Amino acid sequence: MPPYPSSFLKLVDELARLPGVGTKTAQRLAFHLLKGDPLRAKNLAQALQNLHQTTHSCRQCFNLAEAELCTLCADSDRDTSLLCVVEEPQDVSALERTGEFKGLYHLLLGSISPMNGIGPDDLKVKELLARLDPGSKVKEVILATNADVEGEATALYLARLLKPLGLKVTRLASGLPMGGDLEYSDEVTLARALQGRREV
Amino acid sequence: MPPYPSSFLKLVDELARLPGVGTKTAQRLAFHLLKGDPLRAKNLAQALQNLHQTTHSCRQCFNLAEAELCTLCADSDRDTSLLCVVEEPQDVSALERTGEFKGLYHLLLGSISPMNGIGPDDLKVKELLARLDPGSKVKEVILATNADVEGEATALYLARLLKPLGLKVTRLASGLPMGGDLEYSDEVTLARALQGRREV
User: ipTM greater than 0.85, yes or no?
Assistant: First the structure.
């Protein structure tokens, strides 16, 4: 047993449960917190205490929210005719950073993954369909799930489901990332880039 | 501003202040905590709250302690004739892991570093001399400061200070690390290994 007090070891133990943090890193972080201003540790403790109490799911889009609706759903300036379907809250953040999208979001909170036993019923698909009822203002649904196997399968599933509703259903473009090199890009990406080529 | 609740952003902000944790990692950790069992976040918060309240410095050796004396100083089975001088609490842990040392420790809580304005008076040197008064049982002092410039300077300074007291003063061996390759070792290490060669 390391020659440290149990309260210190307890903190190391709790930190080491975080993803990507091993015992060594946890120890380094704990020493850093111990050496630093006690207020810093207190603030972090407070933030952790508040996390689950004040962070909820948006009633409409399932993004993180403090109120019933998230800031985006509550914003009357957003374009309600555009609905972007993503997997996780992180994806909303990524898309918002582009500044290109002014519509609303719908979070599935996952992707179809038979390997992990996750089917459409485990995702917020029913809720998506409810938002697209005939009375809704949505004209276009952008399927912005990840470009991996699960994300593609989910997009395909949703496309089949939504097309009959008479909506415009689009998918994010696949191709070379900006700054990408033809020589080093994989076949699938390059094939997608070819298929999706546009007139200049 | 990312489209997240302020309580979530506050946690990301606090996590991102930890060394080696950027905003992206902090966000990943915060999402992990949010998705997981609320008890996990509570436990971590609790451990952080307790840290400064229950972790003190050992009155004798300045290692981390919950009581007045640390577990090592309070252990009557340790060899009081051997005193190992190290820089930080982490070094005690490293030496204890070897299982080779059964004596007591003294922590300097740093090393002499003129570049950073740290002199002998900023370290626990006075306290070390007090422990080595003529009435003490210490026969050998092992200087186990780091093998870097600051650690070497500190060891040299202490050696000059302690030699006149009639104590045996030793320094950790320098040389090839186990599994080390002659070809890839630096000149200084190799020179030290040569100087410190032993008959087999």
Answer: no
Per the listing, tokens 């990408």 go with A180
- In chain A, what residues touch B50 (CB-CB under 8 Å)? 7, 10-11
Identify all chain A residues contacting B90, using CB atoms and an 8 Å cutoff: 27, 31
3-state secondary structure A103-158: EEEEECCCCCEHHHCECHHHCCHHHHHHHCCCCCCCCEEEECCCCCHHHHHHHHHH
Cα–Cα–Cα angle for B9, B13, B15, rounded to 5 degrees = 115
Distance CA A9, CA A5 (A): 6
The tally of CA atoms less than 13 A away on the side-chain side of residue B196 is 13
Spatial separation of the C-alpha atoms in residues B56 and B69, rounded to whole Å: 9
Q: Specify whether the CB–CB gap between A60 and A131 falls below 8 A.
A: yes
Distance of CA B87 to the CA centre of its chain: 5
The residue count for chain A: 200
The reply to whether A23 touches chain B by the CB within 8 Å rule is no
Q: Compute the nearest-CA separation of B55 from chain A (Å).
A: 7
Say what angle helices A23-35 and A6-15 make with each other, to 10 degrees: 120
A179-189 tens-digit pLDDT: 888 888 888 88
**d(C-alpha A192, C-alpha A179), whole Å:** 17
Cβ proximity of B123 and B109 under 8 Å: yes
What pTM was estimated for this model as a whole?
A: 0.75
- How many CB contacts within 8 angstroms connect chain A with chain B? 163
Nearest CB to A3; choose among B30, B50, B92: B92
Burial of B166 (C-beta count, 10 Å sphere; 0-12/13-18/19+): exposed
How would you classify the pairing of strands A79-86 and A140-143?
A: parallel
Taking the alpha carbons at both ends of chain A, their separation in whole angstroms is 67
